[in-house]
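Standup notes, structure subgroup. Blocker cleared on the (2R)-2,3-dihydroxypropanoic acid input:
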Amino acid sequence: MSKSSILVARAIFPEVLQTLSQVFEVESNQADEVWSAAELTRRMQGKQGALTTGSERIDAALLQANPQLKMVANMAVGFNNFDVPAMTAAGVLASNTPDVLTETTADFGFALLMATARRISESEHYLRAGHWTKWSYDMFAGAEVHGSKLGILGMGRIGQGIARRAAHGFGMEVMYHNRSRLSADLEAECKARYVSKEELLTTADHVMLVVPYSAASHHTIGAAELAMMQPTATLVNIARGGIVDDAALAKALAAGQIAAAGLDVFEGEPQVHPDLLKVPNVVLTPHIASATIKTRKAMAQLAADNLIAFFSNGQALTPLNSLPGAAA
Ligand code: DGY
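Run returned:
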C-alpha cells in the first residue's frame, strides 16, 4: 500500500521526524521557516495530513484549496490557529496535545508569578548594567507571594496545576473564575474557591490568566478590568496573546495602576507592543511556558502519534472534533 503524504510545517525533533518518515512520505521544514498563509497552502498541496504548531493557521481558505487533506495534528494544547468548525465541515480531523504539558506549564506560570512579584528580571537588568553599588532596605522590594491571594481566570488542567502549587506549596488563598464551576472534590483538592470575575479582579494580590483564546475571550483583561485591580497587584498571562489588551496593560503599568505583569504571550506575537518594551515593571518571555526538552518531545511525539493512529485506524488519540462516519 502506498504511503500517505504529510507536511511537517515547522522544525521538530529529528527522532520524531524519523518515526514519521517510516510511516509517511514526509515534506519537512527543518530550516524552520515561518511560511506565509499562501506558502503553507501551496506546501499543503497533495498532502493528506499535516503536523502544525500554533503558528500555522488552518482556515476555510486553506481547506478549500486542499480538498485532499484529511487530518491536521497541532503540536500545542491551544488550537486557536485552527478553525475547527471549518475543519469539521471539510471532513478534516483536528487534534492537539493536552495533558503532556500540564505540569510543565503550571511550573512556568508559577515561575513567572515569582519573577514578576519579586522583581527578578528588573533587578537582574539593574545588576548587569553595573548600577548596584550598595544594599538598601527597599531595593527592589516586591510583593509577597506566600500567604497572598491568587486569582486564577480559567480553571482547566493548567489552572488546577497552578492552584495546587499555590495552595499546597505556598499557603496561598486561591480563588478562581471559570465558565463552569469545578466539582466539589476538585475544588477541595485544589483548595480553590469559586468567585465572580469582579471579586477575583478586585481582591486578588496576583491574577493568573489561563483562559483559552476565542472571540469570546478576546481582551478578557482590558482597561476596565485593569482599573478594577489593586495598585499593588500583579498580572500574569500564560494563556494566549489577545486575552489581554497589551496597549491598555502598558498604560496601566506605566501609570502604576497595577504593580507589575509577567507575560509569556502577546497580541500579534512574535511582535511585542512597543510600549511594553519601555516599562520596567513587566517580565517578558517568548512563549516558552511548555519549553522543557522532555515536554516538547512529548508534545511532538503525541502530535506524531495522532497522525499515525488516524491514518492507520481512523482514530486520533486526542481529537478536537469528530467526523460523520468516522470509525467508532
Ligand atoms: C500550547 O501548547 O498551546 C503552548 O502555548 C505552545 O504553543
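Discussed briefly. The chain has two domains: 5-100+293-313, 102-284.
Next: hand off to the docking folks.
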